[in-house]
Amino acid sequence: MANNISFPCTIVLFFIVFYLINSSNAMLSFNVQRYGARGDGRTDATEPFLTAWTLACGSRARAMVYIPRGTYLVRNLVFWGPCKNIITFKIDGKLVAPENYWSIGSSGYWILFAKVNRISVIGGTIDARGAGYWSCRKKGGHCPQGARSISFSWCDNVLLSGLTSLYSQTIHVTIHHSSNVRIQNIRIRAPSGSPNTDGIIVQASSGVTISGGVIGTGDDCIALNQGSKNIWIERLNCGPGHGIRTQNGVRIKTWARPSNGFVKNVYFRNLVMRNVQNPVIIDQNYCPNGKGCPNQSSGVKISGVTYSNIKGTSLTPIAMKLECSGSNHCTGIILKNINLNYRRRSSASYCKNAHGRASGVMIPRNCM
C-alpha cells in the first residue's frame, strides 16, 4: 500500500523539478512581424525591429529577436545593451537598406550592436545596396561618410554565424573594443572596384576567432588595426580584394611616421596563394599620395613574425618583400617552407632592414 501511495507523488515531484529546470532555460521569441514589420521589401520596418529588440533585451529570460523569411527594408538600427539575459538575433530573411544612400550613409553605421554581452547573430542576408554610394565616391561628389554594414562595439561574448553581407557602402563587419568574439561561416561580397569595402576590421579587441567563409571585396579581406591581440584566423577564401590580402597575400603595413606602437608574435601559416600580386609583404613606408609622412620613418616596431608553409603563385616577379623601418628594424622574422613561383619559374625576394632566419624550402631565396 505504501508503494502505491508514494509512486504518484514521485511522478509529481519529478514533473515539478523538470518544469522548473526547463522554464529556467526557456527562450522567449520576439517576432518582428508581430510588431508591424512586413517582409515586402518596401515597407519601412525600422521601428518594429527596434521594438522587438527593446522587449527582448529587457527580458529576464533568454530571448530571441526573430526575423522570418521575407525582405525587410530598414534604416539605421542601433541595438543598445546591456541586456538582462542571453540574446539571439535570428535572421531567416533578408535585410535591405534604402536605395537612397544618404538614408544610412551619414551616420557611419547601418546595423550596430553596442554594449551588448552574450549576443548571437545567426544566419540571414544583409544588403546595403552600396553601388550608388560607390559611384558618388568615384565621381568625387558631395557624399556622406558611408555606413559600415554590421558592427559590434563594446560587446563581449559575441557569435556571428552564417551571415551573408552584400554590397556594403564601406566596411562589411567591424569589431571594436570587444572581446571573446567568434565569426564563423561568413560570406561577404562586393565588386573588386568598390572603394574601401573591407571585409572584416578588428580594432582594440581581443580574443577574436574568424573561421570558415568566403570574402571578396574591393579592399582588405581582413584588417587588424591598432589594439588587436589574441586573434585567430583560419579556413578563409579571400579574393578579390587587397587581401589579408589578394592584391597582397599576407601584409603588415605601417605608416611612415613616428609612433610608439608595435606588432609582435604574428603567425602566418598553411596558406595557398593563387596569382597574388604581393604574396608576402611588410611595408613600413606606407604613405599614400605622399601626404602626412613624406621622408619620415615608421616608429612601429615589428618583431616575432613567422611565415610557415606558404605556397602558390605570384603575379609579380618579387613574391616576398620585407621592407622595414630604417629607425626600427624588423627582428625575429622566421621563414619556413616558402614555395612561391612566378610564371612557372622561381620568384625573387627583396629585404630592407629585416633580420631573422630561414629553414626548409625557400623559393624565393632568403634575403634577410
From TrEMBL:
Protein name, as recorded: Polygalacturonase-like
Pfam families in the cross-refs: Glyco_hydro_28
Top-level taxon of the source organism: Eukaryota
UniProt key word Flavoprotein: no
InterPro entries given in the database record: Glyco_hydro_28, PbH1, Pectin_lyas_fold, Pectin_lyase_fold/virulence
Gene3D superfamilies to which the protein is assigned, alphabetical: Single-stranded right-handed beta-helix, Pectin lyase-like (2.160.20.10)
Keyword match NADP: no
Subcellular location: Secreted, Cell wall
SMART domains with a match to the protein in the record: PbH1
